[in-house]
Amino acid sequence: MSRRAFTPAQADALLPHVRATLRRVQAGRDAARRRADKIAVLEALWGERLQEPSNPDHDELAGHRHALGRIHRAIERLVRDRFTAVGIRFPIGGLEHGIVDFPTTLDGRWVYLCWHANEERVCHWHEIGSGFTGRRPLTPELAGRMAAVGDPAREDDSVLDF
Predict the structure, then answer these.
(1) Could you tell me if 94 and 22 are in contact, meaning their C-beta atoms sit under 8 angstroms apart?
(2) Is residue 53 part of a domain?
(3) For residue 51, is it within any domain?
(4) Tell me, what DSSP letter sits at residue 7?
(5) Is residue 75 within 8 Å of residue 29, measured between CB atoms?
(6) 116, part of any domain
(7) Residue span of the structural domain in which 75 resides
(8) Is the four-CA dihedral 67, 70, 74, 75 of positive or negative sign?
(9) 13-64, pLDDT tens digit by residue?
(10) pLDDT in tens, 60-85
(11) pTM
(12) Are 36 and 145 spatial neighbours (Cβ–Cβ below 8 Å)?
């Protein structure tokens, strides 16, 4: 799979879908946390005996574990289908903190447009190795030089179909 270079306008156009997907991911994380809390209560009540098939809460434990697996797979699918498959990435801790990177190029080198969930639009960028702490303001002049027409990394001018 080749890398896609997003323009700032393309990244901004995707933000409603990114926000909606992050809400779904957060809802899944909340549901997983509730299930994990229920498992913790059962484990506190029964200890090792919870693993015994004859335990009256053994089936409930199995149900919570099965549901946790379903929730985790659903979150993985969302991330894969809605972000990774279209070239959007999460930096380390990004999923938990609502930070998304859109690969782009600046003067022919790869960089990231960086968006945080509390921002109205994509207004920062950073070098590949610098991460969130290395974010710099996205000026109109810089935006015009990102994913420029004729850049070999630029694959498509259309906004991705989410």
Answers:
(1) no
(2) yes
(3) yes
(4) -
(5) yes
(6) no
(7) 16-86
(8) positive
(9) 999 999 999 999 999 999 999 999 999 999 999 999 999 999 999 999 999 9
(10) 999 999 999 999 999 999 999 999 99
(11) 0.81
(12) no
Tokens 């098939």 belong to residue: 53
Token reading at 115: 């968006």
Does residue 34 belong to any structural domain of this protein? Answer: yes
> What is the CA angle 80-82-85, rounded to 5?
55
- Torsions phi, psi for 48 (to 5 deg): -60, -25
Q: CA-to-CA distance for 156 and 95, rounded, in angstroms? A: 26
Phi and psi, residue 137, nearest 5° = -65, 145
Q: Which two tokens stand for residue 138?
A: 């996205």
Residue with tokens 């998304």: 100
- Over its C-alpha atoms, the chain yields an Rg (Å, rounded) of 21
**How many domains is the chain partitioned into structurally?**
1
